[in-house]
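Researcher: Following up on the earlier apo prediction. This time include the ligand. It's flavin-adenine dinucleotide, with the SMILES given after the sequence.
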Amino acid sequence: MPQVVHAAAAAVFTASCPSVHGYPFLTTAAANLLDAFASDDQRRRFMHPMVEGRVFGTMCLSEPQAGSSLADIRTRAEPVEGRTYRITGDKMWISGADHDLAENIVHLVLAKIPGGPPGVKGISLFAVPKFRILADGTRGERNAVRVSGINHKMGQRGIVNCALVFGQDGECLGELVGEPHKGLACMFHMMNEARIGVGLGASAVAYAGFAYSLAYAKERRQGRSPLQKDPRAPGAHHRARRREAHAAGAEGVRRRRPRAVPLLRSPRGRRAGGRLGGSQARGRAPARGADADR
Ligand SMILES: Cc1cc2nc3c(=O)[nH]c(=O)nc-3n(C[C@H](O)[C@H](O)[C@H](O)COP(=O)(O)OP(=O)(O)OC[C@H]3O[C@@H](n4cnc5c(N)ncnc54)[C@H](O)[C@@H]3O)c2cc1C
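Model: Understood. Below is the ligand-bound prediction.
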């Protein structure tokens, strides 16, 4: 699906509940990363079930001692065989880290292979499933990735956020995605998608706030237009009311999507406020004396 079409569709769900939308959002970004960097076999076993909605994805960068400073991560990946590595370490603040909404979860984990270059140049990327995924794509035994704590957030409470521990109570196996020591560059594919998604989410939430407040202002009847003798005009006809609705949410969003909100029209099809609609509705400064309908 073209990215613009996907973003427009996702914005509707984000506006309805930005935190719950984090689950499909992270999964889409993980699938896109795998599509860009994983082998054909990994795409078949890890990515395709994500696209089908059966398996969810996460992004595991942060650690208790490494948030912005990813060069300091301590999670290690010891070679086992081929692209398979044994993962040990802790990750922190992982959104969607564990749940039973999907039949499996594939964590995309940054870790260091011993002997690699220091700093960010020694970071590699691994796909670490909650349940191992066998060669034929079926679900295998439980991998040793466990929740070690649940973070209590002030907001975004529709998506769980956990601390994870890898390889503490058993063997945790992961598969190298892309080349060794090039993992951060791969992870930026997902991080950049997350950045765009967070920005889009902010616009969607602001738009939802604007739509709710404007709908309320239209529904609540109070006062009247100076052109009307009877108090039949909804509140949204008043410039001050419209301004409050914009301040409540998304004046900027409305201006970018003028056709998405045909709410500033009077019941007769004219712009709200009658003679006052012209320059104000187009975003220009009102003419002197134009506040007469307050
Ligand atoms: C709701 C939520 C969900 C999250 N989900 C995930 C997730 O799914 N996966 C994941 O891996 N992580 C996740 N995180 C963690 C997030 O990625 C980190 O919070 C982020 O990387 C910042 O790290 P930090 O919190 O340790 O802040 P710090 O690194 O301690 O930064 C604190 C402040 O210091 C500033 N700062 C840091 N270093 C410097 C510097 N060198 N120079 C100048 N200023 C600096 C920062 O800009 C910031 O303002 C989540 C966080 C939140 C709040």
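Model: DSSP finds seven helices and ten strands in the chain.
Researcher: Noted. I'll compare it with the apo version next.
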